[in-house]
Amino acid sequence: METYLAASEWIDFDHPRVKARADALAHGSTGIGDTVRRCFEFVRDEIRHSWDYRQNPVTCRASDVLAHGTGYCYAKSHLLAALLRANGIPAGLCYQRLAVGTEGPPFCLHGLNAVWLPEHGWYRIDARGNKEGVDARFTPPVERLAFPVLAREERDLPEIWAEPLGVVVAALTGHATVEDVAAHLPDIDLLPRP
Prior knowledge:
The protein contains 7 helices and 8 strands; from the N terminus they run ααβααβαββββββαα. It is an alpha+beta fold. The longest helix has 15 residues, at 32-46.
């Protein structure tokens, strides 16, 4: 589990601002589940989804997401992982491949998290941010993610990564505005489903 508890360039919970927010969210918590819920709801509700609000700058590093109060789903997942890891709770990054519109192509990755809950094991949570048609919640053991996988080419990728995928980092660090990111959303090639 050490890899899911480590600080890194993008999940920088060792940054004073991130550590202070993690401590504040855990203060008075009744246990791990309560701390996870508080961190999840903070990122879901208080950090704006960059595209929903057309809000710059483009963020990637957890401390930058917190400082600017905005991030794409990927960046928000970096902040949530950082807040959880700062509280000693193993957290990883997960992805779905979804249609950009109502059906694809094109397709893109969607970023979310997995957290280790002692009573349930790995449990996925999606702090993307709720809006009309999106109602993600923390309701273990039942997952309430932002988006269902519907089309044949869409996927729930089963891996739990300790660090963000390179294509995600490249999309967030290689484009200057949220509009540029939206025009170059990350995707990966997958074998077709049988």
